[in-house]
Design brief:
200 residues, alpha+beta, seven-stranded mixed β-sheet, globular, disordered N terminus
């Protein structure tokens, strides 16, 4: 995928301009529905942004993105607590939800946008992230602190239109022409990619 701008109507890989109130400087950022859009029969979440650094700082979990295999190994956000869910931004709570068996078909399902923070402080959108079946495990490292290690398939080829993100924030149903095919496949339990080594 080109590292240039896709278009003014699509998600910009080189600038932090999600057209939302979220940031992309690291970790988990949940974008919720606009207050007037919240419905009692559906999720209050519009989409999740996760950002990982090219090189982790000392004493912070290291992530790894293998672009050739579209595989992201991502660590949760517990850095100090013996309670794996006791984190300020609920990162491990979200991971637990995302990797649950029925997440794709749930009314609580939300897309995940993956950004990468480079050593020169560039932040680039890399693609939509999808949980790999059985891809979440509990680990203990870093002074015996419990954390999660998660495996995601990254769709690096699909362009994301800002119009779709706006529809998600407003709780509206988007027309098929702006919904990414991989997301449509995911929520209808179809293969995300023809790369069967990574996904079924």
């Amino acid at each position: 995928m080109s590292k240039n701008f896709i278009s003014e109507n699509k998600l910009d890989r080189k600038k932090n301009n999600l057209h939302t109130s979220t940031g992309t400087n690291g970790g988990f950022r949940m974008v919720n529905l606009a207050p007037q859009s919240k419905r009692s029969n559906s999720t209050e979440h519009a989409f999740l942004v996760i950002t990982s650094a090219e090189k982790a700082k000392a004493n912070i979990w290291s992530d790894d993105f293998d672009s050739g295999n579209h595989l992201l190994t991502y660590h949760g956000d517990n850095k100090a607590s013996q309670n794996i869910f006791n984190t300020p931004k609920k990162g491990n709570f979200y991971l637990d939800e995302i990797f649950s068996e029925n997440f794709a078909q749930s009314t609580q399902a939300f897309p995940i946008l993956y950004f990468k923070l480079f050593a020169d402080n560039r932040v680039e959108y890399m693609g939509l992230a999808y949980p790999i079946p059985n891809g979440l495990k509990s680990i203990r490292e870093k002074n015996n602190i419990p954390n999660y290690e998660a495996k995601f398939y990254i769709d690096q080829t699909t362009s994301i239109k800002k119009e779709w993100l706006t529809h998600l924030k407003e709780g509206k149903s988007a027309k098929n022409s702006i919904v990414p095919q991989s997301w449509s496949n995911f929520i209808h339990l179809k293969p995300i990619s023809s790369n069967k080594k990574n996904y079924e």
